[in-house]
Design a protein that fits this description.
The protein has four helices and five strands, in the order ββββααααβ. It is α+β, with helices and mostly antiparallel strands. It has two domains: about 40 residues, no CATH class; about 100 residues. A three-stranded antiparallel sheet has the order 3-4-5, with no helix packed on it. A two-stranded antiparallel sheet has the order 1-2. A hairpin with a 6-residue loop joins strand 3 and strand 4. The two termini are about 25 Å apart. The chain binds zinc ion. Zinc ion (ZN) binds next to loops. Zinc ion binds next to loops.
Length: about 150
């Protein structure tokens, strides 16, 4: 497996997989690019959409009344990240595994805050979290390697 870098200068070059997550200098123009793992846009959109629908449905089913906000979908992304990183834990560096743990801890903390505040729709949060996790399982996004510009 290799990492394909498409530099802004138009040059395309291949790197070994162990360069994922590192900054690499283009041999043609000197621009520093970062090789990062990504998920394809259609799959990301599907996960976000499923999370929003699941969060809204759970809000209607479990909530005391109508509510507004995007937090159900955001929770869906958190559930998706945790499941995705766990599924691909061998393909990622330890740092990325820690990101999954931090996201899971943040979701748990936010659930706690929602449980003690009557203004928070935890039904939407729970629905979005489960919807995002299930959407990742259903769409099975792969850990792709794609470059982004290093800042
Ligand atoms: Zn270049």
């Amino acid at each position: 497996m290799s990492v394909t870098i498409n530099c802004q200068c138009g040059k395309t070059y291949q790197l070994k997989d162990e360069f994922a997550g590192r900054d690499v200098e283009c041999p043609n123009c000197g621009t520093v690019n970062r090789a990062e793992r990504t998920v394809a846009q259609p799959q990301s959109d599907a996960v976000y959409g499923a999370s929003a629908v699941a969060g809204s449905a759970a809000s209607l089913a479990l909530g005391p009344g109508p509510s507004v906000g995007a937090s159900g979908a955001i929770f869906g992304l958190m559930g998706a990240i945790v499941v995705f990183l766990h599924r691909h834990r061998k393909a990622y560096h330890l740092r990325d595994g820690r990101i999954g743990f931090v996201v899971a801890a943040w979701a748990a903390y936010t659930f706690f805050l929602g449980a003690v505040s009557p203004m928070v729709d935890n039904g939407a949060h729970l629905g979005g979290l489960v919807g995002g996790a299930l959407a990742v399982l259903a769409t099975r996004p792969r850990a792709a390697l794609s470059p982004t510009r290093a800042s």
